[in-house]
Amino acid sequence: MTKLKAKDIYDLYKEFHVPKNVIDHMVKVADVAEKLCDKFIKKGIKIDKELVVKAALLHDLLRVVDFKELKLKRIKQHVTSEDLEFWTDLMEEHKEINHADLAAKILNKRGHKRIANLVKKHFITEIDNLKTWEEKIVYYADKRVKGKRKVGIKRRMRKSTKEMKKKLIQLEKEIKKVLKD
To answer: Which has the least CB within 10 A, 30, 116, 122, 151?
Structure first.
């Protein structure tokens, strides 16, 4: 695996024309994930914090793929014709794959397999496939952030199914139990 530096992450944002509001969300998720990692480490649990933070900073790299339509008002930035063309092409070309799988595929091809795995596992339907603490932390941190604000699970997942809410609450309990003991 080639070492991914902060500049490389920034370059990926530029390459894929990541909207500012999506970057803001990923930065906040990374902040929440980093704080969780620190708590786990303080409890003596081995966590690859650098991996978790990098995955959190990239988990929604290709989020535009899942947009039903481009609502430019929600993007809250100056959108160039190049951005618009890139996003439209991306949405059209990859309409059969979700953003997490596509980003994981690209990161894998570029030699970032461990980051790709965490990115793939953050997708909402992956909750039953979370095995490592790193996977659980990235997943949970993402579900705790709405936009760029940290919120409670119930508020963030308001539109989710009862079954999904139940699973998320269970994951939250699992995390809190480990950090409490």
So the answer is: 151
For residue 146, the 8-state DSSP code is: E
pLDDT tens-digit readout, 101-117: 999 999 999 999 999 99
Within 10 Å of residue 155's Cβ, how many Cβ atoms?
Answer: 10
Q: What confidence score (pLDDT) does residue 68 get?
A: 67
Q: What is the mean pLDDT of residues 66-93?
A: 80
According to the 3-state scheme, what is the secondary structure of 147-166?
A: CCEECCHHHHCCCCCHHHHH
Instruction: Give the containing element (helix H, strand E) for 136.
Output: helix 133-143
| Domain boundaries 6-180, CATH class | mainly alpha
Between CA 51 and CA 96 the distance in angstroms is 28
Enter the pTM of the model. Answer: 0.93
78-96 exposure pattern, b = at least 16 Cβ within 10 A, e = fewer: eeeeebeeebeebbeebee
